[in-house]
Amino acid sequence: MKLSIVTTLYNSSKYISEFYSRISASAKQYTEDYEIIFVDDGSPDNSLSIAVEVANIDSRVKVLELSRNFGHHKAMMTGLSHATGDLVFLIDADLEEEPELLNSFYQYHNNNDVDVVYGTQEVRKGGKFEQISGALFYKTLNYLSDLKLQDNIITARLMTSEYVKALVSHDEREVFIAGLWQITGFKQDSITVKKHSTSETTYSIRHKLAILVNSVTSFSNKPLRSIFHIGVFISLSSFLYISYILINKLFFASPIDGWTSIMASIWLLGGMIISFIGIIGIYLSKIYSETKKRPYTIIRKIYER
């Protein structure tokens, strides 16, 4: 198999037919030996039935039906684990990323010694809120973690089979795929592309915050180190303040009073302690999740002719 095309489905029914025809036309420009893998991520609409109809008429199409909705990142990893091509093209099916990107990615890959060609947006798509929240997400993630992700990366990427095998070898329950893309290594280059806006984003603020917490705790122990540093700072500040009180008491006979400052300090320290326990709890919950070794997706059925 020369080329595998992997995409996921979630509320994608109105895009599947056009996506299939356009991606097939792009693939045929280079080879007739290709496959298209649709991963139905528990979509609540009729995406599955439409994809199965396509698989019934085209032997190069395979549909993986997941037993429920597991999430975009896990669905992508499942599709990649079933890809058999020498080259693997990963793309979303909602047509926000043009299927014809395969052409420019393929040309760049042939002209350069790289293992991965991926797309980045020159200007993040969407309104001001989406642009600002997206920029803050990447800046916060890069600051709090050991990752240095490029801003405005998109799903679309062309990868060698060697890279994909290394990528899916990560045996993690909580998947943040952008982080895995980077830490897998190999030679990776980006191409600036335009991403269209065909629908409202399904990534709410709550979802983005959950992904941020998951990604930071998956790829960095900086929050744990910061607890130690803050603790040392508070201890030194307390020691200096106690020294100041004793000096005033012994030499100037002017004891420090004021319940307001005392109560404020108690509330401050109490809040910090609870926050620190919460951070440690998040890491412990991830350890608990990883040690159970549950599969991150379950395939209910595979459809192919």
What does it look like?
The protein is of the alpha/beta class. Helices cover 51% and strands 16% of the residues. The protein contains ten helices and eight strands. It has an eight-stranded mixed β-sheet with strand order 7-5-6-4-1-2-3-8, with helices on both faces. Strand 2 (34-40), helix 2 (47-57) and strand 3 (61-66) form a beta-alpha-beta unit. Helix 3 (72-81) crosses helix 6 (161-168) and helix 5 runs parallel beside helix 8 (205-219). It is elongated.
Low-confidence stretches: none
What is the end-to-end distance? 17 Å
Structural class: alpha/beta
As a percent range, the share of helical residues equals 40-55%
How large is the count of helical segments? 10
Largest sheet: 8 strands, mixed
CATH class of the largest domain: Alpha Beta
CATH homologous superfamily placement of the largest domain: Spore Coat Polysaccharide Biosynthesis Protein SpsA, Chain A
- Order the strands across the largest sheet as they lie in space: 7-5-6-4-1-2-3-8
CATH second-level architecture of the largest domain? Alpha-Beta Complex
What overall geometry do the principal axes of the alpha carbons give? elongated
Query: DSSP strand (E) fraction?
Result: 15-25%
What is the CATH topology of the largest domain?
Spore Coat Polysaccharide Biosynthesis Protein SpsA, Chain A
Q: Quick one: how many beta strands?
A: 8
> What do the pLDDT scores average to?
81
Radius of gyration: 25 Å
* Strand and helix order: EHEHEHEHEHEHHEHHHE
Number of domains: 2
